Fold these 2 entries.
Entry 1:
Amino acid sequence: AQTVTQSQPEMSVQEAETVTLSCTYDTSENNYYLFWYKQPPSRQMILVIRQEAYKQQNATENRFSVNFQKAAKSFSLKISDSQLGDTAMYFCAFIPDGGTSYGKLTFGQGTILTVHP
Amino acid sequence: GAVVSQHPSWVICKSGTSVKIECRSLDFQATTMFWYRQFPKQSLMLMATSNEGSKATYEQGVEKDKFLINHASLTLSTLTVTSAHPEDSSFYICSASYPLAVDYNEQFFGPGTRLTVL
């Protein structure tokens, strides 16, 4: 079974600054995918960024980037130039590429991020 | 593309009644749909996985007779909460996937349904 841990229940940042959200996971699978999802007050889940475990290069999507450390099973999200619209709950998620849990997302506990003007 | 809708967005019902929530994939055929439950400021918990034309697979601890899931077509899955009680009040989210999305194991999420049982 997989577990995903987000140790920061709440974070805050000033507009235009940079913030990093942490995530660790535990799995015995060798092939898997990692995601960061954003859930704003509307509660619609929005995919922020994805990372394939077999790729060493860290994924980047505009102001969002990850620091993927496979050996340490760490997958942090860095948000640069924070904007008020980034205020949301962020979830780290894991999905194995095979095994009995194939296709099933496991979510972390979530981190509530507040961007202050 | 890859839009998923849910209906209703908010439903209030009396204790003891049944409520049906629909999840539709609008622009793709969803071979697999997932149902999640989320309490305020908490994470999403997978309730069940449904594949078109077959019985749903429920996660441990989820009552099959209380949460009936039907995936009768490639674009529609329904969750029926039977004999609802106040403790069933929650936010229910569906997601859908299709074979080509397997490249990234990506799921597309609906906007969720807020259920309040009085």
Entry 2:
Amino acid sequence: SAVISQKPSRDICQRGTSLTIQCQVDSQVTMMFWYRQQPGQSLTLIATANQGSEATYESGFVIDKFPISRPNLTFSTLTVSNMSPEDSSIYLCSVSAGIGTYEQYFGPGTRLTVT
Amino acid sequence: GQQLNQSPQSMFIQEGEDVSMNCTSSSIFNTWLWYKQDPGEGPVLLIALYKAGELTSNGRLTAQFGITRKDSFLNISASIPSDVGIYFCAGQLISGTYKYIFGTGTRLKVLA
């Protein structure tokens, strides 16, 4: 499986600011996704990061709040904008290797605390 | 909205015991994935299931895709302390897509 890294691993931010999280994969992958995991909760899909086009957002998530970029097949960023304490969560990048497989692999996550 | 219920929510077991957990839903799924998440880490894929009735093993772990396609089961045999963590199931909502919904998680604690 692909090796996935995320930066930063954790951060403490003030409300009203923005944080950009990076996801880097060691090989080209077809699909990249961003998930949120609120404290003590399960994982919720935020969006699918599409290479060269706008991300596809799930219900309840909007581009203005969570802008996503994916300039190539190995890299993506998620920005959490105008943060509030409710945005305190773990943000996870995941990838799927390609056609014919629906397995998803996760990065180590970015633990965000908003004060 | 669609929901995946995992049971039990948490469990304490003695080292060496077998563990069973399951995921149920009112919806039909085409693929099931089982993950383990350690504190401070991302989920690690344990087993993938693609066909109703399929039984797949990965070491001491065995998972089954329920016949009705609405449920899945994970068994861990002869548990060891490093089995501690949170186990999540994930169901593929629509065949041919990469969208999954995740279960509520089962927190496993193993007593040495």
